[in-house]
Amino acid sequence: MKRILLEGPAVEPVLLSEAKAHLRLDGAGEDELVAALIAAARVAVEVEIRRVLIAQKWRVVVERWPKHGIVLPVGPLLSVEAVRVIDGAGAVTVLGEADYQAETADGSLQLFAFVAAVARTEIDFTAGYGVSGLDVPQPLRHAMRMLVTHWYEHRSCVIMGETSTATPYGFRELLTPYRRLALC
Question: What's the pLDDT tens digit per position in 14-38?
């Protein structure tokens, strides 16, 4: 199963003004750095919990459709925009909403209609907690602010005279309830 990012998030879950308030920064001198740290913190949180935070458009290409359906590899699922089946000759059939069932709770998708000699299936969908930072659970947003602060204050991975840590204390504990587990 291949996944392709079609459109990234339009906004970040934590606003620049929120991060600057958390850092107790005034002025615009460090805005570029803080904005970069916010984006990096979002990606770090997404990698840790194996979910995306802000609405993003994705495409999944499935070479062989399993009998019992699939769980989309990017979640949480907000909506399915299109399901296309492509036969061995390259002919594309767009399935209607009656031909499949998507479960937003677990991100699963089951097909009811099959086209003969299906070579692959393409699914376009939107994943994330919502379109606004306010849609993202507060513990995840706080974990991002903690990470931004940690990276802002410790700009090197080696700190002389201190014990270095990759993430601040409590960061992973905030993420644990949202982590999507993988068996392989």
Answer: 999 999 999 999 999 999 999 999 9
**Residue 97 exposure: Cα atoms within 13 Å on the Cβ side:** 5
Distance between alpha carbon 4 and the CA centroid of its chain, in Å?
A: 12
Going by the DSSP 8-state scheme, the letter that residue 14 receives in this structure is S
Q: Within this chain, do residues 136 and 166 fall inside the same structural domain, yes or no?
A: yes
Element (H, E) at 150: helix 138-153
CATH code (residue 14): 1.10.3230.30
What is the crossing angle of helices 138-153 and 31-49, to 10°? 130
Q: What is the pTM of this model?
A: 0.86
C-beta pairs of 135-139 under 8 Å, 24+ apart in sequence: 135/54, 136/13, 136/53, 136/54, 137/178, 139/174, 139/175, 139/177, 139/178
Contacts of residue 181, defined as CB under 8 A and 6 or more positions apart, other chains included, come to 50
List the domain range (segments joined by +) for residue 82: 56-127
Q: Compute the distance between CA of residue 174 and CA of residue 137 in angstroms, rounded to an integer.
A: 10
Q: What is the dihedral of CA 125, 128, 132, 134, to 10 degrees?
A: 150
> Which positions ≥6 away from 20 have C-beta within 8 Å?
26, 30, 31, 34
